[in-house]
Amino acid sequence: TSAQIGVTGLAVMGRNLARNFARNGYTVAVHNRTVSRTKALVEEFGQEGDFIAAETAEDFVAALERPRRLVIMVKAGEPTDAVIEEFAPLLEPGDMIIDGGNAHFADTRRRERELRERGIHFVGTGISGGEEGALHGPSIMPGGSKESYASLGPMLEKISAKAADGAPCVTHCGPDGAGHFVKMVHNGIEYADMQLIGEAYQLLRDVAGYSPAQIADIFRTWNTGRLDSYLIEITAEVLSHVDAATGKPFVDVVVDRAEQKGTGRWTVQIALDLGVPVSGIAEAVFARSLSGHAALREASRGLAGPKPSPLSESEAAAFADRVEQALYASKIVSYTQGFHEIAAGSEEYGWDIDLGAVSAIWRGGCIIRAAFLDRIRAAYDARAELPSLLSDETFAREIAAAQDDWREVLTAAVRQGVPTPGFAAALAYYDALRAERLPAALTQGQRDFFGAHTYRRVDRDGAFHTLWGGDRGEVSA
Ligand code: NBP
Of all atoms in ligand 1, which is nearest to the CA of residue 78? Predict the structure, then answer.
């Protein structure tokens, strides 16, 4: 017999993905650089389905039916190139290499181009949901050629997560690096979501005076409403967890320095290149980075702050409701920014990404899965060319209803000295977009003054320059 799919790289992700394929009735060839991992998989989980264990690259490739579908689940970066170089010479035109790692989309574009010249389809595929998702159904974001998706799509649909309406959480995002780009922005949005939740927690604790256990209950309540999402759900779990060794809330015994693997940073770096304002995602990345500067924080601990002014019990409850409004409004802005970046990437690279389809495949399996994504999909269904999520009527109305509370929460945060860069960046973005006039006019004047960079006028076409050092007359540039 031959295998319909092969997986090489059998650490947590690859192993679970291979099991997912096998549990769905596919015969799966498995391979790993270190053979013991391959053996361990078949020994432990062999009864779950049909596996063909291959010790060598040649055996692995020989086990696959043609055209071959070969999934790589190794560490992103050089290991991925090494594995491609190992297998590509053994493949034939029409075969497919699927990279399910967290590759940078620019690497994926390069690999796709190089392999296309050799007649091989390279399918850079974002996979979200961690090891549990890989086993029980991840959200899958494939790029690559249409042809490869025709062959792979049905298999990916089978192993993917299913949304509440039963739809598989996979779509062909677009050619070459489109899938890894979408996955990158997914992770950027995840950073922003986590930062906003963190700020909500801090406000409930430091301004409203609630304990972690009380805040867990508040999050549980929120999770039954429009904020219903995996991240809110696990936040309640983490906040209610008590450290066994000390009896203290778990969140109080964890060192408060957030780490990162890089996809959030990429989202911001690429947004800078594309000129897309993803201020909420950027603040989330910077907040993690700031938290890690232990010496700087230690040196700053004595700096002056406002006097604490605790809230009464009823004030605290009202404040918690306001924080929910602020969190929801800020979340709308984060997604607005993330989808703007996907639209800009799609435009730049000619990917033709369907934003509604992307929001639909994030409804299940992945870390940012949420009821909220149904609304985003509805917004794009109603109007595929929506210039921004904020221009959707429903979102505009919801923000309008939330904005007073949003502003109140930020006012309280500023007064009481609680850092809320995510909430603040989101509100500033909202206010800047709706502003009749921005100080950018003044910026243009300054640029013209010191660098003769010229400016445009509101009342006439053309570029102009004022003779700042002379009689201040205006000339056409
Ligand atoms: P790791 O990222 O820890 O990679 C370990 C695997 O890479 C092992 O199979 C290892 O083989 C193999 N490998 C390395 Br390292 N260098 C190699 C080389 N030069 N040649 C051949 N194989 C090599 O595994 P993971 O955590 O399962 O993640 C796999 C991919 O999925 C990564 O790109 C990751 O970013 C992505 N991802 C992970 C998650 C998650 O939650 N962990 C979620 C979504 C995506 P060995 O056994 O011989 O050392």
Answer: 19
